[in-house]
Amino acid sequence: MFLVGTQRINDAGHLEIGGCDTVTLARHFETPLYVFDEADIRDRCRTYRAAFESRYPHVTIAYAGKAFLTPAMARLIDEEGFDLDVASGGELHVARVANFPGRRLVFHGNNKSPRELNEALDAGVGRIVLDNDLEIVTLDATAQARRHCQEVWIRVAPGVDPHTHRRIRTGQNDTKFGFNITSGAALEAVVKVLGRQGLLFTGLHAHVGSNLKDMEAHLAALDAVLDLALAIRDETGLSVEELNLGGGLGIRYLPSDEVPPVDEFAERLTSALLDGLASRHLPVPHLHLEPGRSIVGEAGTTLYTVGATKSVPIPEAPGHRA
Fold first, then answer.
1. What is the pTM for the complete model shown?
2. Is 131 part of any domain?
3. CA–CA distance, 105 with 70 (Å, rounded to integer)
4. Does 108 reside within a domain?
5. How many CB atoms lie within 10 A of CB 106?
6. Number of structural domains in the chain
7. To the nearest whole percent, how much of the chain has pLDDT over 70?
8. Chain segment 6-62, per-residue pLDDT in tens
9. Considering the domain boundaries, does residue 15 fall inside one?
């Protein structure tokens, strides 16, 4: 066990979070119960902002709502100056209940329904991230029917296979998320969007995976995305105004786990980005990031109550102790 944020063991031998005895919380609210350390979450938000804003001229950080989202969490994120990334109609509804500013919402999802796209337009969502060809056609028609031009990003698969669990890898060539850079599909998607009256292309989005314990996948993805930005300029004459490099920074689940500090993450990523832009003679885009797990993961605790117990015999296996 390791303690983070405001966690401590009090005189009664109980875990305390934010000055609240967790045994008392469990008795009052019953279990299972999620408890989040607000002070720790706010500190992590401020650490992210300070790390990136001190190193890069134009940066916006959005909290990835899929990590944990309630109206109270959305309001906290708003107070800390973060944008909010939502990935479903349900998450969009939570944001609207919290009166989160629509302009600062980013709407993700690789299978958005026509209803969800309409709800996003109703909410005045700032950016909708396009994931497939059907979505380009559907959103364009929906926006034109409203006489609206919606700002969009193209999600791309950079062809990077990160070192993480296979079920949370999202940047490799065979991923179901986004348009493949290697095959040329990503560049084709940008060209398709440029020909649509209901869509305004403003940037690219890439997310390589979740709970990453090193930065190599981020840096490799960055190279691929910058090469795509160069190809877009050569093909269309347009510069990519906004570049979203997603999230994915891991957290500790065990005391022995090691993850890069946010300051190191920011230093290496922004340095590589600025160097890569300069070497390709590309203008500096507005940088967007989407941390989720690294904001709330270690700040959250689940409380349980032991119910029934059982004694189960375990046959002794060769070379193993029963």
1. 0.89
2. yes
3. 15
4. yes
5. 23
6. 1
7. 93
8. 999 999 999 999 999 999 999 999 999 999 999 999 999 999 999 999 999 999 999
9. no
User: What CATH number has the domain bearing residue 154?
Assistant: 3.20.20.10
The answer to whether residue 319 sits within a structural domain is no
- Residues 6 or more apart in contact with residue 138 via CB below 8 angstroms: 114, 117
For residue range 181-224, what is the model confidence (pLDDT) as tens digits?
999 999 999 999 998 999 999 999 998 877 777 778 888 889 99
Task: Please state, in angstroms and rounded to a whole number, the distance separating the CA atoms of residues 55 and 105.
Answer: 24
**Structure tokens that stand for 301 in this block:** 């605790």
